[in-house]
Amino acid sequence: MKIKISKFLSSDALSLKVKENLIVDDKEFLSNTNLDGNIQLTGEIFKSGEDLYFTGTVKYTFKDKCARCLKEFENTAENKFQAIIVPKEDEESDEMQFVLKDGTVIMDEGIKQLIYLSMPMKSLCSKDCKGICPNCGVNLNNESCQCENHLTDPRFDKLKNLLKN
Q1: In 3-state terms, what secondary structure has residue 111?
Q2: What's the rounded Cα separation, in Å, for the pair 73 and 127?
Q3: Domain shared by 122 and 140, yes or no
């Protein structure tokens, strides 16, 4: 994931629009994230004195499992971010950094970290997903179960007796 900006650096322009379709070939990263391998990157590089900044959005698609019904589906995430472009990475900095080397911005590690941190912990196939029945295991999105509707937590069954008196 590299962007050549040597012409931009030598010009008087203050900003450069970026729209790239990045292809990831890191097999370990792809297997850990279930990404389809394509990352859409849009944004702008700004000059501010001697410093360079990148403001943009990263959009990617990955395979996920619904937290309610366990159905596999394709999920799309889009995240905005800001980064500083530096000649050498500063390990102690809290800012997101891209390294500039020979007129090329190297984005590999920064984009990977952004994706790792922005992956949802729980995903739903749809916002109105009904999930699965905890008693019989039927996917309630596809069919209704024949279980009793009065299922309760057995720990609270003793409290029912208080209501009878």
Answers
A1: helix
A2: 13
A3: no
The residue count for the chain? 165
Residues 74 and 152 in one domain: no
| Structural domain for 144, as ranges | 130-165
Nearest 5 degrees, angle CA 61-CA 64-CA 69?
140
144 and 88 both lie in a single domain: no
- Read off the pTM: 0.72
State which amino acid sits at residue 146. Q
pLDDT tens-digit readout, 45-60: 888 888 889 999 999 9
Number of structural domains found in the chain: 2
Same domain, 39 and 75: yes
Average pLDDT over every residue of 28-44: 85
Residue 55 pLDDT: 92
Residue 139 is given by DSSP the state B
Mean pLDDT along residues 95-106? 83
> pLDDT at position 149, please?
65
Which of 149, 150, 147, 152 has the alpha carbon at shortest distance from 137? 147
Strand partners, 78: 59
